[in-house]
Amino acid sequence: MSGHSKWSTIKRKKGAADAKRSKMFSRIVKEITIAVKEGGGSDEDSNPRLRMAIQNAKGVNMPKDNISRAISKANKDESNFQEITFEGYAPHGIAIYVECLTDNNNRTISNIRAIFTKKGGSLGTNGSLSFLFDRKGVFNIPKGELDPDEFELEIIDAGVEDFEFDGDNFIITTALEDFGNVQKKLDEMKIVPENAELQRIPNDAKSLDIQDAKKILAMVETFEEDDDVQNVFHNLEITDELLEEL
Asked: Is 194 left (phi over 0), alpha (psi -120 to 50) or beta?
């Protein structure tokens, strides 16, 4: 989990600093739209999914005006977004799980299949990789004034499975069913995560040499560049050596 956590943190920081920022904003706008339409309206206090989307928007420095606009436009948006997923394999047997929000299934299916084919992978059937990933809640929280030991003691009883501290951020992992409990506990403690989301965590990571691993991550990045893609998960082991190389 540790390597994937570090990699996720690096991607967020990188995304907030370069041209990927607009793509990240676009993804969050879609999530806000879905949250308002399906999660219970535009009041973040009564809509946990919207509250999470807003937290994530703030985490990548999305301007308040953009967030407010996205919320106000959500009910008027006639786009009929659907959540669809794809499962398959990259070269060297690396499992790939792609989550999308789309208003055109045919376009999305065609694009995702083309990436798998072009990059030497293969698209599988839904459910074929479910045994390789566990769905977990992951919270990334800046240290700020928090004392690591005191914070861990206070949050652990809310349903935390794993607690990491890298010197700058706390990375908290929960079971899917405890995600809401931890979110509620953080609210009570008046702690706002930089990022909170449901991720698919590999239960058996696979190690490759540096060059092959970089090709897999390039393939992952190609998926992430598609406008319909929200998240990409994989079971490539993110080693310290790989992180240094990147």
From this structure: alpha
In sequence order, which residues have a C-beta less than 8 Å from that of residue 83 and are 6 or more positions away?
Answer: 34, 99, 100, 101
Q: Is CATH 3.30.70.980 what the domain over 82-127+204-245 is classified as, yes or no?
A: yes
Q: Distance between CA atoms of 38 and 127, rounded to whole angstroms? A: 24
> Which single residue is written with the structure tokens 């929000």?
101
pLDDT at 229 over 90: yes
Chain segment 144-199, per-residue pLDDT in tens: 889 999 999 999 988 899 999 988 899 999 999 999 899 889 989 999 888 888 99
pLDDT-wise least confident of 39-48, 57-66, 101-110: 39-48
CATH hierarchy code of domain 2-74: 1.10.10.200
176: CB partners within 8 A, 6+ apart: 135, 136, 137, 198
| 3: exposed, middle or buried (Cβ count in 10 Å: 0-12, 13-18, 19+) | middle
Between 2-17 and 21-39, two packed helices, what is the crossing angle to 10 degrees?
110
* Cα Rg of the chain, angstroms: 18
CATH topology of domain 132-202: Alpha-Beta Plaits (3.30.70)
Structure letter (DSSP) for residue 119: T
For residue 84, the cross-strand partners are: 100
